[in-house]
């Protein structure tokens, strides 16, 4: 597997496969929690992402965030939800998942709104699947 989504591509893929599983209530909750998070705190997290990654890694991390945002837009549209804060929360979370432990406690800030409804995000985990396990999970629709 190539490193498409930054240093933690497998975890990003796992995260992406679960965005569509969110209910309308969970989408609303994520949006509300994102709005309650300090914009300065989020900006500090993004600054650490910038400082701790190379330009090529940042490019791949932004690809991950873009794909996650698209998945969030689709999930929201499927549930007639249109709050941009949900899409922004997913963007932040995908970024944090992609860099994981490199950003320290900023990981928790960026994933917190999604971790409230996706508890597996509560702790930074490096890629957990082998390539074969990942392919099996993706092909079976699991994660």
Could you characterize what this model shows?
By secondary structure, the chain is mainly alpha-helical. The protein is 68% helix and 0% strand. The protein has 7 helices and no strands. It has helices at residues 9-19, 24-36, 39-51, 55-78, 84-99, 106-115, 131-140. The mean pLDDT is 87.
What distinguishing features does this structure have?
143 residues, 7 helices, mainly alpha, 68% helix
Spatial separation of the terminal alpha carbons: 16 Å
Contiguous uncertain segments of 5+ residues: none
**Which class of secondary structure composition applies to the elements?**
mainly alpha
| Topology pattern, helix = H, strand = E | HHHHHHH
Shape: globular
Strand content: under 5%
- Assign a percent range to the helix content: 55-70%
The average pLDDT score comes to: 87
| SS element count, helices | 7
Q: Taking Cα atoms only, what radius of gyration do you get, to the nearest Å?
A: 14 Å
Major beta sheet summary: none
The count of strands amounts to: 0
Please give a quick description of this structure.
With 143 residues, the protein is an all-alpha fold. It has seven helices and no strands. The protein has helices spanning 9-19, 24-36, 39-51, 55-78, 84-99, 106-115, 131-140.
Secondary-structure map:
Layout (H helix, E strand, L loop, with lengths): L8 H11 L4 H13 L2 H13 L3 H24 L5 H16 L6 H10 L15 H10 L3
Helix pairs in contact: 1-4, 1-5, 2-5, 3-6, 4-5, 5-6
């Amino acid at each position: 597997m190539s490193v498409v989504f930054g240093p933690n591509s497998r975890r990003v893929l796992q995260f992406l496969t679960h965005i569509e599983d969110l209910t309308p209530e969970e989408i609303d909750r994520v949006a509300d929690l994102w709005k309650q998070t300090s914009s300065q705190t989020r900006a500090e997290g993004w600054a650490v992402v910038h400082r701790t990654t190379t330009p090529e890694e940042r490019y791949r991390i932004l690809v991950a965030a873009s794909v996650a945002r698209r998945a969030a837009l689709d999930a929201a549209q499927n549930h007639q939800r249109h709050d941009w804060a949900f899409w922004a929360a997913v963007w932040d979370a995908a970024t944090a998942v992609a860099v994981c432990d490199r950003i320290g406690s900023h990981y928790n800030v960026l994933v917190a709104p999604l971790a409230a409804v996706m508890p597996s995000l509560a702790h930074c985990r490096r890629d957990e699947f082998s390539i074969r396990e990942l392919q099996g999970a993706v092909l079976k629709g699991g994660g």
